[in-house]
Specification:
The chain has about 120 residues and is α+β, with helices and mostly antiparallel strands. It has two domains: about 55 residues, no CATH class; about 40 residues, no CATH class. Helices cover about 15% and strands about 30% of the residues. A hairpin with a 4-residue loop joins strand 4 and strand 5. The longest helix is centred in the last third of the chain and has 7 residues. The two termini are about 20 Å apart. About 0% of the residues are buried.
Length: about 120
């Protein structure tokens, strides 16, 4: 695998429950650059049709080049991030959470965008 690529990670700050005045405490989520820079690997992996990556991620069974990485978004603000009960969001069908039956837990949707960017013009 000699193809070059750039990796872009853009965390999205979610302000839930209304706007905050500047003087009020606010959460402030940032991407931990050290973790992202130092904890990634590209390798070939073989996926079966029953693995969660295939079931939930739409990956076809078989061997694929995969990039795995660690991401952490610590809250460096002076207020907690409170997104509420995932069950309430799923019942309201607001799109903020989805239940992943294969993993048996909720996924927080649209939190971050990960893109492979071809460096060639």
């Amino acid at each position: 695998m000699s193809k070059s690529f750039l990796f872009s990670c853009a965390g999205l700050l979610l302000v839930l429950g209304g706007a905050y005045a500047q003087s009020q405490p606010q959460p402030d989520l940032v991407v931990d650059p050290k973790l992202l820079r130092e904890n990634w690997i590209v390798r070939l992996e073989n996926f079966t049709s029953t693995q969660c990556d295939a079931v939930e991620g739409g990956i076809a069974p078989g061997e694929h080049p995969i990039m795995r990485f660690g991401v952490s978004t610590p809250n460096i603000g002076d207020a907690p991030v409170d997104v509420g009960d995932p069950n309430v969001h799923v019942a309201a069908n607001d799109g903020l959470f989805e239940f992943a039956p294969c993993h048996q837990h909720f996924h927080f949707r649209h939190y971050a965008l990960y893109e492979l960017i071809d460096p060639a013009p």
